[in-house]
Amino acid sequence: MQKALPRPIAAALATVLAGSLAACSFESPLRVPQAPLDKTPYTAGASIKQTVVPGGPAGQAQEMEYGKELHEEWWKLFHAKALDELIAAGLKNSPTSAQAQAQLREAQATAKVNNSIFYPQITGNLQANRSKASAAAFGRSGGFYYSLITGSVGVTYYPDIFGVNRLVYRNSEALVKYQQWELEAARLTLTGNIVTTAINEAATAGQVRATTAIIAQEKKLLQLTENQYRAGAIDYVNVVNQRSQLATEMATLPPLEQQLAVYRHELAILVGNFPANASRQTFTLEELQLPEKLPVSLPSQLLKQRPDIRAALAQMRAANAMIGEARAQFYPTVQLSAAFGATATHPGLFFNPVSSIWSLVGALSQPIFEGGKLEAQKAEAHAAYDVVYAAYRSTVLSAFAQVANALRAVEHDAQTLAAQREAFQAAAQALQLAQASYRAGASDYLTLLTSEVQYDHARIAEIKAESQRYQDTAALLVALGGGWWNKTGPRAPASAPQNSHSDAGTLPAAQANP
């Protein structure tokens, strides 16, 4: 049978709830640096619009599309099925992603714990006691026995008069947002590392193949040189020089194979496997398709699209709530508690109205003197905010530097590849002419050896230039945030960026059209 609370208790609880709705707060407005204008360029000097055309594989021009949205699965711009499969395995199996997910769940659980302070804490208590009391106090010998049954329901509530509870919850809520963005940043870093490592693996495998082909060519030249020596057409020193050149080329192969093994092991770790389970099947640079159009976010949007910037902003919100908590400590803390129940010496009397008991207690605690502790705590909270404020600025500046560097790298990579491709074509033509002339006896061995060295260096340099172009393209897409805001599934950590700049900012920058 349920009993209604006594009128004084019900009135007190209603007063508490009404007072909580009118609670005040000591949280200050969030202070963030000034946001950049959309006309602010990323790089010093004129902004890049289109690269040169290097020609050949990975040799098309790349156009910067400022203000265009980036696809969520940005790595699919390379159109490499093997790369897509690696990233899918990494997102599923990587311990880094699993760790970030667990940290997010931990933060969400902490926020739920802190959210419970907004509700009355209700506890029930039932106690049965059988005791013997001495009769000596009444001038008798022996004693007497009695039973006591007590049951009660207690209600404790902390009215949020000065908004302390809200500040504690906002702190934990901001930390949840921080972990959400840390999870997104971990995924972005993971996909970026997989793409970069895969490109390095493909480039190194290409260098291994090129070096192997060069060694085979050097062996044929050594055989030719030995035949010419036996025929008395050249001196023995030419044979020795060719053997030295062959040994030099062979010495470059083991380091390349070692680096290839390292990249394969790294890929295995990134996708959550042991190095022993590293895949022996690799894809080549020729399987990658260089994106011809690169979407580049406007500067103001970059603040909302970079997970590390959003995480730093969430830390600022948490630190701002801590300042409010420190200020609220100077004011009284109120605690209200109520209890209603019954006590009786016999179970049959437990529900009798004469056995009912209740209490209503209000407590107020006001700091008077604590030796400067509260002032020190407030100063500590302000200093902590200054720390995360500076960290936010540093994160923003670093993000803009990464985008600026990647944009210039994409521009210069095309120029480098064009020069390296021209150098390789010239070196290949020179080697063919030198070989024909050497076979015909029209030129000496030194001319042939010089052409070989130039060809070897030009071929390896071309492969490195191709690889660097792919890598810096990937670096630009990662620096822009990776396109998470275009998610269609439930994995998005927050709503897509809007045009408002109220919650993000950075240092002022010079104005120019991108």
Automatic annotation (TrEMBL):
Instruction: Name the source's superkingdom.
Output: Bacteria
Keywords of this entry: Lipoprotein, Membrane, Palmitate, Signal, Transmembrane, Transmembrane beta strand
Q: What residue stretch is flagged as signal peptide?
A: 1-22
Q: Which Pfam families match?
A: OEP
Gene Ontology CC, one term: plasma membrane
What is the recorded membrane topology of this protein?
Lipid-anchor
Subcellular localization(s) per the UniProt record: Cell membrane
The Gene Ontology terms for molecular function here are: efflux transmembrane transporter activity
Residue ranges that the Swiss-Prot or TrEMBL entry lists as coiled coil: none
Where is the segment annotated Disordered? Answer: 489-514
InterPro entries given in the database record = MdtP/NodT-like, OMP_efflux
Q: Which family does it belong to?
A: Belongs to the outer membrane factor (OMF) (TC 1.B.17) family.
Full protein name: RND efflux system, outer membrane lipoprotein, NodT family
Native species of this protein? Acidithiobacillus ferrivorans
